[in-house]
Specification:
4-stranded antiparallel β-sheet, 11 strands, 30% strand
Length: 171
C-alpha cells in the first residue's frame, strides 16, 4: 500500500497517510463503511447526488464535533440534490450517540470495521488508524470535484470553499 509523508501533521508532528493521492478529477474508489445500525454502505450507495464528504478523525474531539455541527447547520441552505455524509473511524455506537446528542440530521458512517475508506482515498493515518481531516465534494457521477486535506489535523477546514464547491456542483 502506498504511504505518503509530509502531507499532514498533528500538533506539529508529521504523520503518514495510507493510500493514493486522489484529487480533483479522480473517480471515487470503492470502499465499505458502516451505518450507525451496522449496515454496510459502499460507493454505489452514495453516488447519484452531489456528495459532501465531511471526513474527521473522531467526533469526540472539539474541532471534529464543531466541523460536523457546522455542515449539519448548512443543510437547510443546500440544494435538494446534495447529500452531506460525515465519515470517521469512530464506532457506530459513538456516532449514534453523537447524532442524538447534537441533533445531527445527516448520515454518519464509520470506517472502524475494515478501515477501507481511509486507505482507498489516501486519508488513512497509519500511526493512529484514524482518518485525517478532509473535505471532498463528489459529483453525481462519482467524480471528485473538490478536495481539501487539512495540513494540521487539529485545525478547521475551509468551510466556505467546500460549500461553494457543493453549491456549484449542484447547479
Amino acid at each position: 500500500m502506498e504511504e505518503r509523508s509530509g502531507v499532514v501533521t498533528f500538533g506539529g508532528r508529521p504523520l503518514t497517510l495510507l493510500g493514493p493521492d486522489l484529487g480533483e478529477g479522480c473517480v471515487l474508489p470503492d470502499f465499505t463503511l458502516s451505518t450507525t445500525e451496522f449496515v454496510a454502505v459502499g460507493r454505489a450507495n452514495l453516488i447519484g447526488k452531489v456528495l459532501l464528504l465531511n471526513v474527521v478523525p473522531s467526533l469526540d474531539t472539539g474541532v471534529c464535533s464543531a466541523q460536523t455541527r457546522r455542515f449539519n447547520q448548512e443543510l437547510a441552505r443546500l440544494p435538494t440534490n446534495v447529500e452531506v455524509v460525515t465519515v470517521s473511524a469512530d464506532l457506530p455506537f459513538a456516532q449514534a450517540r453523537f447524532a442524538a446528542t447534537e441533533g445531527i440530521l445527516h448520515r454518519l458512517l464509520s470506517d472502524y470495521r475494515d478501515f477501507s475508506f481511509g486507505p482507498a482515498l489516501g486519508l488513512g493515518i497509519k500511526e493512529l488508524r484514524l482518518l485525517t481531516r478532509a473535505i471532498l465534494v463528489v459529483d453525481a457521477a462519482g467524480n471528485i470535484i473538490y478536495r481539501e486535506i487539512v495540513p494540521e489535523i487539529s485545525h478547521h477546514p475551509d468551510y466556505e470553499a467546500a460549500l461553494d464547491a457543493v453549491i456549484e456542483a449542484a447547479r
